[in-house]
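seq:
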Amino acid sequence: FFSPGFQVAPETKAVMKWLRSIPFVLSASLHGGELVVTYPYDYSRHPMEEKMFSPTPDEKMFKMLAKAYADAHPVISDRSEVRCGGNFVKRGGIINGAEWYSFTGGMADFNYLHTNCFEVTVEVGCEKFPLEEELFTIWHENRDALLNYMEMVHRGIKGIVSDKFGNPIKNARISVRGIQHDITTGN
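struct:
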């Protein structure tokens, strides 16, 4: 997952351990500097290629999750070309991360590959470092989109995997035909 010789910071190791210990299913990483929602993979399948579409086996689900956020965001969903240069207007405000730019060690890729958690990255505004007086507006632009995204946790299959006596089975592998990405049951 990380490049050879890459040093993992103690706080990163702690978050990785935490993510493996709790069965999260959905998360979002909030960034600044653009208005777009990206989804895995963020690291290109061909490391020497920049801006190369690199879908996961769950491409359709990730696009749906990203659209749920983007469509509920008043500025990301605005079709005008005025915002942040309008780079993502024609794409509906979403893009595969590696197609935008490829990088290794991203949280969304880690979550997808090593936990049951599906994560998107939300670029919440054009300013990389917004001023304090801009934060209230940014919050209001993102509040309903965050709520809409969180409601997506109710999509998909839910249930309890149990043995013949009704006892839950921990770490049971669940496969979906046609999707080459298994998940496991929680505690």
